[in-house]
Amino acid sequence: QVQLVESEGGLVQTGGSLRLSCAASGLTFRNYAMDWFRQPPGKEREFVAAISGGGRNTYYSDSVKGRFTISRDNAKNTVYLQMNSLKPEDTAVYYCAVLVLRSGSYWGQGTQVTVSS
Q1: How much is the pLDDT for 71?
Q2: Which residues in the chain show pLDDT less than 70?
Q3: Residue 81 belongs to what H/E stretch?
Q4: Gap between the Cα atoms of 33 and 55, Å rounded
Q5: Number of Cβ atoms within 10 Å of the Cβ of 14
Q6: 59 vs 98: CA distance, rounded Å
Q7: How does strand 10-13 pair with strand 111-116?
Q8: Whose CA, among 3, 12, 49, 77, lies 20 to 30 Å from 33?
Q9: Quick check: 35 and 58 in contact, CB under 8 A?
Q10: How far apart are CA 32 and CA 115, in angstroms?
Q11: What gap in Å lies between CA 106 and CA 4, rounded to an integer?
Q12: 3-state DSSP call for residue 14?
């Protein structure tokens, strides 16, 4: 069974940095692209970033491009989201996710990131 476990988020000040991690199990990790999504308070879940299985290709939403970096360590079955220059509008519950063909989408439990102004 696929499981995704995110690291603890936290409270940071505007302009600060935070790194999230997501450990995966139950799948051949290197074969799958991994995604990060977030859900701001009172809003719908939105795409943040994605990385291909080998890590060569990355994709970002316009709102985080240039500030966030997604990466992965296939030896550790872990994907990361480095968040720099954080803004209050980055406050959200952050989720890692993976789409497994013929099985479905799997999501982590979510981790709260709060950016104070």
Answers
A1: 98
A2: none
A3: strand 78-83
A4: 8
A5: 13
A6: 14
A7: parallel
A8: 12
A9: no
A10: 30
A11: 7
A12: coil
